[in-house]
Amino acid sequence: MPLLSHFMHHSFQTLAQKAHIDGIGLHSGSQVNITLKPTSQTGITFIRTDLDHFSIPADFKHIKSTFHATVLGEGEAIISTPEHLLAALWGTGITHCDIEIDGPEVPILDGSAATWCDLIKSAGIVPLPGKRPIWKIQQPLRVEDHGAMMLALPYPGLRLTVATDFDISYLPQQLVDFEMEEISFSEQIAPARTFTLEQWIEPLRAQGLIKGGSTENALVLGEKEASSALRFPEELARHKALDALGDLSLLTSSQGALLQAHFILIRAGHGLHFQWMKAARDSLSPFITAI
Predict the structure, then answer these.
(1) Is the pLDDT of residue 62 over 50?
(2) Same structural domain for residues 278 and 227?
């Protein structure tokens, strides 16, 4: 049975048992061990076992950077590239989880959230007492930046509309529209992989990034063809939806809250997600109501 989207789960949930995996960090190239553990504490917390078990809550207030990935931090300690794991936890309804990690970057695995969903499924999911609060968008809230746009509209559930356009001759503009309570997150969003244009690779390496990147963990879009067959005709837009869900989870995860809004994203990325969340938090009273 597929893991359904978390938006059908109105109770708090945690893992039935701990689950471990290891892999390479996309940008650092470092080997990392990571263990997901059940907890009775609301929220998602990263625990740096290599830094005397220093804790970094997965929360909007702890975003330090959005340069080519979301980076969380507390003091000098950071957690880079958590968005795929966070999306998998949010998409499967996990509201309580401790994440032990022995390095600064969450492993990229195959570049999607599919393996994270499999790991969560292998651990099992159990309900916890209490009903999750709901954060409802009350008024339209839009941010724009250099031709990109993120708009949230009042909506009785969670809907995500994502458009991408990378001017690639063999890939048309892509559009996805997900009514989140009606889909299987693990089947329709989680498998979509991170991607890069071939022409971006050397500039990224020159900045000290993608040291662990390969065609095993990313879809590389060359001038004439992609490095492998697309998993979906709209894989790029689906992956952008995945990234958006992972980032948006940081807005409500400390309370284990559900989010009700229709999000429309055009050419949006981590930086714009952060700008929108900051605008939402700065305007909390008129725009968002917790139930």
Answers:
(1) yes
(2) yes
